[in-house]
Amino acid sequence: MKNAARLIAMIVLAGVVAVPLSIFAQSPATVLVNAPAGQAKATIIFYRPGAFYGKALKPSIYVDGNEIGRLKSGKYISYQTTVGKHSLSSSKKDAEVEVSVSSDQPQYVEMLIQSGTWRGAGRLVPVPAEEGKHKTDQLKLQED
CA distances (Å), 73 to each of 2, 10, 76, 112, 120, in order? Predict the structure, then answer.
């Protein structure tokens, strides 16, 4: 019985060690982009609740196809952009989300970690402002 438990533990640990190190690369996380002069600014707040599962993963966040950063567990990123429609995506393939943002209220977007064959991936889900505000009050701004 002990040998079976050891074998299972070795297989699980081998799977963790086999994760490509490139997913842990550092990149700018907090990005504030100045909207062109004369255009109203809007804020999108991306957050990821702290959890043990997928803690080492830092999935990329893309706004209109441009990477704005990699989100850590238990953190949030505040991103300024122009008012209007924007396309949001993360490392999860074919999971693009369209949001319409305005200058009067920030748009909150939660990142969920989903398991995959070789590694987990981030999926973005827009949430109501009240829920997003409540959850981000319990998190820290990602500054690196």
Answer: 34, 26, 9, 10, 13
